[in-house]
Amino acid sequence: MVSNRLPISFQRNEATGEWSFSMSSGGLVTALNGIRDQVPFIWIGWLGEEIPHDEQSKVREKLAREFNCVPVFLSKEIAARYYNDFSNDILWPIFHYVPLPLFRPGSEKKFDFRQWDAYKLANKRFAQAVNQVYREGDFVWVHDYHLMMLPSLLRSRHPHCKIGWFLHTPFPTAEMYRMLPVGREILEGLLGADLLGFHTYDYARHFIAACARVPGASTSPKGVEHGDHFSAIGVFPIGIDPDHFEDILNSDVTQKRIQELTTKFAGCKVIIGVDRMDYIKGIPHKLLAMERFLSLYPERCKNVVLIQIGVPSRTGVQEYQHLAASVNEMVGRINGRFGTLTHSPVHYIHRSVAPSELVALYNLADVCLVTSIRDGMNLVSHEYVMCQSQSCEPHREGPGVLILSEFAGSAQSLSGAIRVNPWNTTDMANALGYALELPLMEREYRQTNLYRYVKTHTASFWGCQVSKCLVLTRVVAIDYWFSTTKEPCLMTRHLQVAHRSNVG
């Protein structure tokens, strides 16, 4: 298992020099824990900070012994250019349909080939870490846009290794992807994999269309043939751990907090928004919709409240600072225009909240509003559905309503949601008005469909599906070769292997 970051938190005791490590939580950790008993694996990744050279052996041994993890060590300079500059400032925006600007204030062109060189070097370091522990017959599963050169690097060293790669973000249209100056090289790096996984059919279709421009590549709905290798394409929507949220919901701490919130917001309809503070999450679009809603429905000004949680992210980056400032200004403007001495229509929480607090808010909310302008999946929608599994009485009879951006990957799976275009402010405002007046029977019907999907398409289910398909990829490749050629074909690499064995 190879990802940019290891799921490890750590600190060093300066007095004793000892390192202490603990396993972090997260969606990928949850998904992979579900398959660990069936498929034991080693996790390879970067720790997120530079480790002094004389401490690396000690750290490597401790992680291998206690967590079955292998660290990749990167210098601060390489990490900054590979992770911050190339992965997050170039790949992340393009994959979320944000084009590269011609110029960055105070500097020359945005694209810097030193960042690309660092990206390639970091991928080579990851490949070296894999090579150190790889044994014949192992599978390698690579994750996300940080490591798109890794499949071909591994393929050149291990021709018969089964390699999978999964993208946790959208993949843009071929026309959008063409803006990336090194797009062809990245696609060739990915085409060393046996299985390429995406959250939705749209993302897979865009990837296949982009590969059609790679010299020597032949595409089909099943995958991409490049040289003498075939890469199968798979669609696997990720989920959450439903039992985890139901356990929190049923805990005494959460139930007590639900009662407190019910009293606090008595007589009010509650809309919940939970987002990382990122421009792709559409928080300003959500606030504009709330402002428009209050203008269209003035009678609602005193009995509807939006609780928006904005989890800080990349606070040292200028674009994110501007976003936070804009959100603060908009919240102040809406509360100043529509609020009173005793009521503020927007409650803005600019920090993370405890799990029990979050689940209590989910359960209380009459509407969950997700307004991402692009999102790989958006699991907030799944979390809200699970926390509506029990009615929040006496605040409301029956479940609440999910309003979901059509640009979130989860919109293709959650058929019980009301879908909106975040760029259409008036339509979103009217969707809020519609959702708040939805009859009990229709709310229950929508929730039943949503709950059934979220409960069955879990994070563990996702992990099992991808790993099973990776096992079967060679069968898919053989089927492809025989279905697309009239004559039996012999791949070039098979001739090369036979030649080397005869010469030897």
UniProtKB/TrEMBL annotation:
Gene3D superfamilies: Glycogen Phosphorylase B. Pfam families: Glyco_transf_20. The keyword Glycosyltransferase applies. It comes from the Eukaryota. Keywords: Glycosyltransferase, Transferase. The keyword Glycosyltransferase applies. One of its GO terms (biological process) is trehalose biosynthetic process. GO terms for molecular function: alpha,alpha-trehalose-phosphate synthase (UDP-forming) activity. Transmembrane segments: none annotated. PANTHER family: BCDNA.GH08860 (PTHR10788:SF106), TREHALOSE-6-PHOSPHATE SYNTHASE (PTHR10788). This is Uncharacterized protein. It comes from Phytophthora ramorum (Sudden oak death agent).
